[in-house]
Design goal:
The complex is a heterodimer of chains A (362) and B (393). Chain A is 24% helix and 32% strand. With 362 residues, chain A is an alpha/beta fold. In chain A, the strands form three sheets. Chain A has a six-stranded antiparallel β-sheet with strand order 4-3-6-1-2-5. Chain B has 16 helices and two strands. The chains are: A alpha/beta (362), B mainly alpha (393).
């Protein structure tokens, strides 16, 4: 151990010096700006990935096989991936659960269900071409199996809620002795990974309970308890609509087993768009109510926020601020721009008004 | 030209307040059409230009490693010059205008972009986007009118200092990027004793000096040293590339607002200005350059200066497409669309710089010769209108 101590700082120093020298060569850009022309996946600071294949799963779901570039730190099954893709020239970011276990070939998969009217999900399922370069973030999320596998496990999923669980099952099904999966989907053919799950069940890897809600109706906690009598004794992972998760949480809490339940919530894809709303200026700890006709710049300034500003007529871009969450409307054409948590959509505050609650990073 | 408000034949006297608002609405419609159709092709365009620029730059610099061989010097210098021109004109200027912000790509965004130029992007955005584009051609408000060192309008007061302005202009052309850095710092105003110590000004000076040092180190130290035995010739190559870019950008930018036919405006005329009136001021305060597609790209599409000033945040590759619609508006509203070839417009601007180095009545006349290249229109004018009521209110 001691022998490795001396060379490491020296190598780091040399590397830092080399990096500084390279920056002198390329200023005001960074070397990566040039190198990414030759190798889009080579940059470790700007993580990207190449879509190697788009594999249909059901009529409205597909699995994207992605090769992450240099700098990918790996993932744990059950985590999600934030993915940025250019659609009609505009970069759009969304989070999707990783459905692959860590694999020796270095590729990862996410599985996407096309939502009606979903800009990104429709694009990824129906229009995305193999070979496309996408922007990536490191995998994140706590919805994972513990290192010490539980003796009895239960997974409760609905619709695309199966995706993080599929990652876990692919990674650890053989290490789990007693696994039950209760999955709801409208019809048998809508079950994403249906064939694989049924195969796994047939081989005895898990007990699979499929609920086809078109015929059988929605499953409630009472119905679930009838199917899995010992459910609150099981370490449980649930992913699906918020209503289902809330009902489960109540049932587990009532049984005193709240700590056994792990949930993953997919944020609503559509944001309520109203007229005016509460604007939070997060960096300044200011919250203000704004109507639909008042610019965010005016709202901020009248509440004492130090807003950057310029021409105040939408031409100079001196006033742009990241929109972290919520919707704003362009006062010039009524066009609505929305952001979901994790985003930082830059908006011109002098010509934008609140279109529902929103958070600005200033 | 005398400010529009003081001209005997006011070129906008025939327009009523309603006409001007209707004109504004028509321009808004043109803008909306472009915004509605922005998409993947536009994004591909700017990425292609950026990639071309970077390949040219790195290719040029690689060839210059052997610059002591004259063919390598010529080839490398040519590639580097073109790359540097593209970087400032079609890429830097337009990205910093926010023309590509809609792509939401943090790598091509007005708030993150830094350019290959002596002045830091942040300072330039303030003086250019906020001041020049808002107060275009308003005497006393738009410092781009002569950059504070020249008199380019009869309405600007003559001072003996202006006798030397053909020389100032030539010197400025040769070192243009440093001229812009000094301009963005408002050195003329801020070097006065009372302002010199202002901490905000001092911090901006430090910011600019840091930028200049990094830029100069790259072009005049690092790359020459990397060229080893070709160090001296790589140094002359980089000096040449920067010099030619200075001359080129100075010429293109002079053509934007200085040629004959471009109108200027009184300071009080923009009080309470409507959107329509603002548009009208941009239409009359700018001049285009005609030429080939390559020429438009090399000017950063500032050859469509009129369209750019109307819609500074629309992607530059779209100006060409809307130019006929804008020209049609000029025609229908009886206004002059000033345009001409590059040599002609550069000559026109230089003539003005030379003529106005002397007092207005030096040759016994105050009005300049008819505008070169202006589209003559049958604009009815109100004789002896002393103030354009439409424009001043």
């Amino acid at each position: 151990m001691a022998t490795t101590h001396t060379p490491v700082p020296l190598r780091d120093t040399l590397r830092a010096r080399a990096r500084r020298l390279a920056r002198l060569v390329t200023t005001p850009l960074v070397p990566g700006d040039y190198l990414s022309i030759l190798d889009p996946l080579g940059s470790s600071s700007d993580l990207r990935g190449r879509v190697e294949a788009v594999l249909p799963e059901t009529a409205d779901a597909a699995t994207l096989v992605i090769r992450p570039g240099r700098g990918w730190a790996g993932h744990t099954a059950g985590q999600y991936l934030r993915l940025g893709v250019d659609i009609d020239g505009v970069r759009q970011w969304r989070s999707y659960s990783l459905t692959s276990p860590p694999r020796p070939d270095g590729t990862v998969t996410v599985t996407v269900k096309a939502l009606p009217g979903g800009t990104v999900s429709q694009f990824l399922v129906h229009r995305l071409q193999a070979g496309t370069i996408v922007q990536l973030d490191q995998a994140a999320g706590e919805f994972t199996l513990p290192a010490t596998r539980p003796a009895k496990a239960l997974f409760v999923t609905a619709g695309s809620g199966i995706t993080p669980v599929m990652g876990m099952l692919r990674d650890g099904a053989d290490q789990l002795d007693d696994v039950v999966l209760v999955h709801s989907a409208p019809r048998p053919e809508d079950v994403i990974f249906g064939a694989e799950l049924r195969g796994l069940a047939a081989r005895g890897g898990l007990r699979l309970i499929e609920r086809h809600t078109d015929a059988d109706g929605m499953l409630d906690p009472g119905g679930l308890a009838a199917l899995v009598p010992d459910l609150t004794e099981r370490e449980t992972w649930a992913c699906g609509p918020n209503g289902m998760l809330d009902a489960l949480q109540d049932a587990y809490d009532a049984a005193g087993s709240g700590a056994r339940l792990h949930t993953e919530r997919f944020r609503p894809a559509l944001i309520a768009v109203g007229d005016g709303g509460t604007v939070s200026f997060t960096g300044s700890a200011v919250t203000a109510d704004a109507d639909a006709a008042t610019s965010l710049l005016d709202t901020g300034e009248s509440h004492g926020v130090l807003m950057p500003s310029g021409c105040r007529m939408g031409i100079c871009f001196g006033c742009v601020v990241p929109l972290r969450e919520g919707s704003v409307r362009d006062l010039r054409n009524g066009q609505v721009t929305s952001a979901v948590p994790g985003d930082g959509v830059l908006v011109q505050t002098c010509v934008s008004a609140a279109a529902g609650p929103c958070q600005l990073d200033i | 030209m005398t400010t529009i408000q003081k001209q005997a034949n006011n070129p906008i006297a025939h327009l009523s307040a309603e006409d001007i608002e209707r004109l504004g609405a028509e321009l808004d419609a043109i803008r909306e059409q472009v915004i509605a159709s922005r998409g993947a092709d536009d994004a591909a365009y700017i990425r292609r230009v950026i990639t071309t620029q970077r390949v040219l730059e790195m290719g040029g610099r690689t060839v210059l490693l052997a610059s002591r061989f004259p063919p390598a010097w010529f080839l490398g210098t040519a590639a580097l010059t073109v790359a540097k021109i593209l970087e400032n004109m079609e890429i830097g200027h337009n990205v910093l205008h926010g023309q590509w912000d809609w792509m939401r790509d943090p790598k091509i965004h007005s708030t993150t972009w830094e350019w290959d130029h002596a002045t830091p992007a942040e300072l330039w955005k303030h003086s250019h986007n906020q001041l020049h584009h808002t107060y275009t051609n308003v005497l006393g408000k738009d410092n781009d009118l002569g950059y504070g060192i020249m008199r380019v309008d009869e309405g600007q007061r003559w001072h003996p200092f202006h006798l030397g302005q053909p020389l100032w202009n030539l010197v400025n052309a040769c070192v243009f990027e440093y001229g812009i850095a000094a301009y963005d710092l408002e050195l003329g105003k801020n070097l006065r004793k009372s302002r010199r110590g202002n901490p905000e000004f001092r911090s901006r000076v430090r910011q600019t000096l840091r930028k200049i040092r990094r830029q100069a180190t790259k072009d005049y130290v690092v790359h020459p040293v990397l060229s080893g035995p070709s160090a001296a010739t790589t140094l002359t190559a980089n000096l040449t590339a920067n010099f030619i870019r200075n001359l080129w950008s100075h010429s293109v930018i002079m053509c934007g607002h200085f040629p004959e036919g471009v109108e200027t405006f009184e300071r009080n005329s923009i009080e309470g200005e409507t959107r329509g009136e603002w548009y009208l001021r941009q239409m009359l305060g700018s001049a285009n350059i005609s030429g080939s597609r390559l020429m438009h790209i090399m000017t950063g599409n500032l050859s469509y200066q009129i369209e750019h000033h109307l819609f500074p945040d629309l992607p530059s590759n779209r100006y060409q497409e809307i130019a006929p619609k804008v020209q049609d508006l000029f025609q229908r509203y009886g206004l002059s669309y000033t345009t001409g070839s590059l040599p002609r417009q550069v000559a026109s601007a230089w003539k003005k710089v030379i003529r106005l180095s002397l007092p207005n009545d030096f040759f016994g006349r105050t009005e300049p010769a008819p505008a070169s290249g202006s589209t003559p229109t049958a604009a009815p004018s109100t004789p002896k209108a002393e103030l354009a009521t439409t424009a001043s209110r």
